Amino acid sequence: MNRSPLTQRPAWKALAMHYQEVKNLHLRELFAQDPQRSARLTCEGAGLYLDYSKNRITDQTLHLLLNLANEADLEQHIRAMFRGDKINLTEDRAVLHTALRAPRDRSIEVDGHDVVPDIHAVLDRLSVFSDQVRNGAWKGFTGKSIRTVVNIGIGGSDLGPVMAYEALKAYATRELVFRFVSNVDGTDFAEATRDLNPEETLFIVSSKTFTTQETMTNAGTARAWCLEALKEPAAIARHFVAVSTNAAKVAEFGIDTDNRFGFWDWVGGRYSMDSAIGLATMIAIGPANFRRLLAGLYAMDEHFREAPLNQNLPVLMGLIGLWYTGFFDAQTVAVLPYDQYLKRFPAYLQQLVMESNGKSTTLDGAQVNYQTSAIYFGEPGSNGQHSFYQLIHQGTKLIPCDFIAFGKSLNPLGHHHDLLMSNVFAQAEALAFGKTAAEVKAEGIADGLVPHRTFEGNRPSNVILAEQLTPESLGSLIALYEHLVFTQGAIWNIDSFDQWGVELGKVLAQRILPELESATEPELKHDASTNALIRKYRGWRQEQRF
Ligand code: G6Q
User: Fold this and answer.
1) CA nearest 411: which of 398, 422, 420, 423?
2) Rounded to two decimals, what is the model's pTM?
3) Residue 496 CB–ligand 1 contact under 6 Å
């Protein structure tokens, strides 16, 4: 694989020169000069339609970006991931979330072992269990059926399940209530359970490692909450199941190992929503719909693997994103789903993208001398329009946007959907083409207000459309971003699959906890600020009397 430093490669240097030539080109000119632009700069795959014509790119930009991908041996990287090579170098692991959605007749080997039958065996067990909970056959300790499912997990063991549950609510049973507890703040557990009946509640403890502080604390609190009502330790087996790779820790916690659903170390937390970590999703939408979700993910996997790079959605979006980060110094990307069901999608992407590519060390251990991951943020449209869009339209920063919308509403009410879609198209149009001072003046606006009412435009966006929000289209959308992240990580030459940056804070918290809780005044050896904060808290803690 190409290991010469990224910024010294011919395509990077050519892009740097090209940037100087095109940086002032306006989308107004690009569209005016080329009537075919919109038809040419669109792409379809796995049920998604991408219009990327409103980006600050020319055919030459695309050509050079594709050269950059080739110089980084992107196709070879893609093959290595799908093959199960240990591409997560710092953890010496394969990266095989794509195997989770491979059909039964596929064969994918990790260390000489075909993992596809294992994956389908777990899926089959999950399906049986989900059906039992859904149809009331799974009884709580006192013989009542389950009415509420509470997923306890954090990070990758929470954000995926909660996003998918919200996204696919239209497909979910309304007979069951779903709650998600993640934060170690006791408020999260207290509020999620305050109106629940322990006899009718099922906890899913979702933790790959089964050692995560927040999850184990919440799981312990849940066990105590359950036992306080049901008294008998035997009740735990009817009210707790675990999703984990760590069978020993699950048994130690007291969960019947028959009620453990496993997965594998080659599934990263933030890539695990379609593994057993998706149990809450499967109970909500049912096994058949869960398989439709897997089919959507698989369709995008196949597209990513097979489509030529210049017609490959994740590759195109990844390269265009890299163009803004690397050359326009854009710091962020706004993800703007025009669908209320996708309200947690930006939060999900925040982890997927930033935990994966928020790195500054290359795979060779060198410091990067270029920007890596953009900051992802967003809110569903049209809400965001009444909040932060002002800055995107008229602020001093360049914020590339991803608009996501669906042709057919799941809740067709009057002309709501036409209104929604008119807004998404209008926003992308306004950002790209703006409104000149001359246009503002022509409307008779007072001279003093003209600068305030002018829109510079030239603000780039992608528009991603699908016919309807379905399990399949959600799956395609998720895999689109997974592979966009992969594309960028491969070119930036970083490990997109580790997350060492979360470790230091965890270790320091472990040191601080006994200092907060000690009965005698501890000898504090932190910096002066941390020492003072600890003393301040200890003062309040003594007053509160636990
Ligand atoms: C994701 C991260 C992280 C992880 C959580 C929960 O890629 O690894 O967000 O998912 O820390 O970990 P457990 O599932 O082990 O509790």
Assistant:
1) 420
2) 0.98
3) no
